[in-house]
Amino acid sequence: MKISYNWLKDYLDFDLKPAELGNELTFAGIEVEGLHYPGKELEQIKIAEIISLHKHPQADNLSICQVNDGNSTVQVICGAPNCRTGQKVALAPIGASLTGFKIKKVKLRGEESLGMLCSEKELGLSGDHEGIMILPEEAPAGTNLATYLQLQDAVYDTEITPNRPDLLGIYGIARDLSALLKIPLKQPELTSETIPEKIENHLSLENQAPDLCTRYTARMIKGVSIGESPHWLKNRLLAVGLRPINNIVDITNYVMMELGHPLHAFDYDKLEGKKIIVRKAAEQEKFPALDEQTYTLSNDDLVIADEKKPVALAGVIGGSNSHITGTTTDIVLEAANFLYSSIRKTAGKHLISTDSSYRFERNISDEMAEIASKRAAQLILKIAGGRLLSGKLDSYPDPFKPPLVKLRLSRITRLLTLHLDEKTVKNHLEALGLKWIKSEPDTLWFEIPPYRKDLLREVDLLEEIIRLHGYNNIASVDHNQDIMDKNRFYTRRKLKSALVDHGFSEVINWSFSDPDYLDKLKIADGDPRRDLVKLKNPLGKSFSILRPTLIPDLLKNALYNINHGQKDLKIFEQAKVFTRNDQKLAREKLRLTGIMTGHSKPVFWQDKSVEVDYFLVKGIIEELLELCRIDCPDFIPSTQAYYLQGQAAEIIFKDLNLGSCGQLDPKIATDFDLDLPVFLFDLDLERILEQVAVVDPVFREIPKFPPVLRDISFLVEHKYSFQAIRNKILAVNPDYIRKVDLFDEYKGDNIKAGFRSLSFKLVFNSSTKTLTDEFINDIIQNVIRKLESEFQIEMR
Amino acid sequence: MKEKLENIFKEAQIAITQATTRHDILQLKSRFLGKKSDFSSMMKQLGSLPAEEKPAFGSDLNILKTRISELLEQQDEIIREADYQKAIGRNTLDLTMPGRKRERGSLHPITRTWQEIEDIFLAMGFEIAEGPDVEDEFHNFDALNTPQDHPARDLSDTFYINDDVLLRTQTSTVQVRVMQKHKPPIRIISPGSCYRNENDASHSPMFHQVEALVVDQGVNFADLRDILNVFVRKMFGERIDSRIRPHFFPFTEPSAEIDILCIKCFGKGCNLCKGNGWLEMGGAGMVDPNVFDLLGIDSEKYTGYAFGLGIERIAMTKYNIPDMRLLFENDIRFLKQFS
């Protein structure tokens, strides 16, 4: 629902700026989804006077006008039929931008136009596009239109939750804000003078469906003059998104927007039999509605009818056979209420959604009908004149009886942790219109006003208390333990599952180990893994230390399995290793270690079988590290004695050693009775977990242009590493070279000694343009020049 | 002119009906309608014709273009259909041949069980705490209300590094560490390795436990009963009840041992439960006020419960593993059963 800032000021004296008030609304539970300033656009429009006017020589339907905007006189070409010399008009000067278009200097058939004279439709003021908007003579030229029409306002788009139909009018919002801001609420004027003539003498009412029409009231006003509404009234309606029609209809709409209760006015002369009958429609009954459609009704639709015909689809839409027209003099003002589910059904069935049905569907109050009726009568007499007849017709089969709800102070403390005294609670709830009835020990009794059907139970009152107190003014109770490092926890799990996905099986070995294994692995004397944690009372020498490395146990596991005929092995262990330090306890660090032997993947009839190798183990490590968002670590030759030299690497990231991988030295394998190539990785999980970056992926725009692929092949000496070459290529033009993939290495007979041939696929892309052949050729030439000077490559 | 157009059409008709590949079609399109075709040059001439001849000739040219285009489309459709029919014949597979599968590894049954326990407790708002395997006597015994002369402290039960430092015999040590560092409310579990000096078919010198500790105001024995019931049902299934029996642990009072209904015979008695219908799963109790007092937690204000469960015991029960030693042999044929 749209809420006007100016309108709210009718009921509340607040000195909050529009944005501040929006914030208050949101925290009152009326969520502001948008805030806009409707007069803003019209501040650019100036009131101007047409000084002279003559026909365009080249076009009969265009006029060349000289208009004065109070400051200067400009020439404007206008096509409207209604422009005359001396008129005050709305001028959109050059540079003004109206919804959808911007005013520019143009030439129309050879004549310059330096602005535009606007219609009401172009200004968004009404649907009128018959001609330009003509302003009253006294309108001062030069003043901007927004100021003149008092259109400067701030309008909130709000979401009213379905439990709060009382907020479907500006006054209801003001009532809530009044309680929240502790500002007194001003009441709308309701009283009108009546003439002695009684309504009963002119009209009768029969409610044949008291289950569907819970209240029906009618008042009658004679001798109204139908016309345009005053500007202030039109502006109010425009601000909240309604189109002005005529003063009577506008007033019923105004009161609906003000009090949240829809009204309808009938032309008394069109009511046949001078009778209003509330009844269910007959099957197949036709009803001509105000939207120019004829609806075919059925027995579950409720209609308002006269003696002969339906004149309104109750609560949904009025009829075109009885509505207010320019010739109407006597009106019947309907203020009623209907069973919300019935309105919902009818509106849904006939696919009609009106401001009226929207409100009736939300179970509004019977009592408000009477207040809205009085308010509308007051405004009609004031604006459209006429005489209000005495009395009203009123069918109200089941009058409202205010419910009593109790509230325990102790319950407020228990649920909200607030300690409030009786007086504060009373003040809060009375500000919302509840009536304190009595107090008992710890308990207050309140009478609920008719418009708050959502307040039925103690918890409902508790919610009101907290809303007024402020949700965020409740101190939170700290239950946060902050014991667990979730990132560490889930990374460990993630790494395990990644290995399982790669075909690895997890092993678990005892922490006990044999010190001799360190010698077998040729771990040097100064190595920190030699700082052993020894048991005082071990199960035996083979179990006399806590293991400082997981490698020997995994080799033992491999041997056990190979001895049992399982040669294709992928196993890993994630466990603590122990060393001694100068602390009282041991140094305990997590490691992730794995080994691979035999075939790299299961037999498949289309493929040749492949043995595990260095690049398989390296690829797995790279994937594991990528999972931890550790990208592009360096792989430098390992000098650990248990690796086959040249076939193993230490993994370095930001100067930290994260572990190693490669082929076990065959001699050491033999010492462990393993007579086949063994590849292993041994990661410092503790350090990796410290490096894991906790960053969520950030979306990058997907290139709109297709990538361009180019291959280059060249000879290069062995001493230059792939990585150095690749990084060099990427660095040549990082804006366009997005990827550099190696797709072939060749070291054949026809390649000279000490050299190899490398083939790269380069992927070019740009987010801003299509890359031309010339453009890419230039980059490629540049790449080649850089590689020639740096690595002395020879193109093939 | 008309004649020339008709000749072009006839020539195109012959060529197009002889096309056999989609490539032919593309070439013919270029030959008859492309930039260098006769058709194109006649289109260009159109401009220079006298105004009264233009409409008729223009319309003839358009008709020619439409007719040739239609021929091309028809022939293309014929070729595509023929290609498709050929493909059907060629690509008949032996659908029973093995698919390309990846090899899946497996998590160790202890890890599987461990993670399942973690997940159950994480979902109930517990956090996971860890502590060292190598501990001191304070955390393993003193703080847990175990007196100096308690038999558990014997060399025959506990592995020592030196007189004061040992391998923890229970994960309860983490309780102590958490309570030293954090104020209540505390709601943790702590899984990890423990060590005891014993080695046979049902005991391993290294084994795994999960410890739970809840400390807050108003925590009571009924809460302990509830969490055990909830855990056991989630772990073993809705039919499996749990019960507790009086027992003694130095750091809980009252103390209890936890049994679950035998998952094989549901209480009737079988070889798994050795006839008594219940299986022992671990120990539990209300935290002894002495433990709180020693760690500076107000034992009048706070109460708590703790329990410990053997992960191997749970895994062996759940997966029907007969011998503890299978868990540490790491035979791939055993491990792969848990993928």
Oligomer: heterodimer
Give the helix/strand class of chain A: alpha+beta
The major pleated sheet of chain B works out as: 7 strands, mixed
- Count the E strands of chain A: 43
Instruction: Please tell me what the overall shape of chain A is.
Output: elongated
Largest interface: A-B, 51 and 53 residues
| Sequence of secondary-structure elements of chain B | HHHHHEEHEHEEHEEEHEHHH
Mean pLDDT of chain A: 93
Number of helices of chain B: 12
Radius of gyration of chain A: 43 Å
Distance between the termini of chain B: 81 Å
- What is the total tally of β strands of chain B? 9
Using the coordinates above, name the CATH class of the largest domain in chain B: Alpha Beta
Helix content of chain A: 25-40%
Strand content of chain A: 25-35%
Q: Return the domain count of chain B.
A: 2
What's the shape of chain B? Answer: elongated
Second rung of CATH, namely the architecture of the largest domain in chain B? 2-Layer Sandwich
Structure, explained:
The complex is a heterodimer of chains A (796) and B (339). Helix content of chain A is 26%, strand content 28%. Chain A has 20 helices and 43 strands. Chain A has a seven-stranded mixed beta sheet with strand order 30-34-35-39-38-37-36, sandwiched between helices. In chain A, strands 3, 4, 5, 6, 11 and 12 form a six-stranded antiparallel beta sheet that branches. In chain A, strand 7 and strand 8 form a beta hairpin. In chain A, helix 5 (231-239) crosses helix 6 (247-259) and helix 6 runs antiparallel to helix 9. The longest helix of chain A is centred in the C-terminal third of the chain and has 19 residues, at 773-791. The radius of gyration of chain A is 43 Å and the shape is elongated. Chain B has 339 residues and is α+β, with helices and mostly antiparallel strands. Chain B folds into two domains: 2-90; 110-338, Bira Bifunctional Protein, Domain 2 (BirA Bifunctional Protein, domain 2), CATH 3.30.930. In chain B, strands 1-4-5-9-8-7-6 form a seven-stranded mixed beta sheet, sandwiched between helices. Chain B has a two-stranded antiparallel ribbon with strand order 2-3. In chain B, a hairpin with a 2-residue loop joins strand 6 (242-249) and strand 7. Chain B is elongated, with a radius of gyration of 41 Å. The model of chain B has no long low-confidence stretch (mean pLDDT 91). Chains A and B meet through helix 13, strand 30, strand 32, helix 15 and strand 34 of A and helix 5, strand 1, strand 2, strand 4 and helix 11 of B.
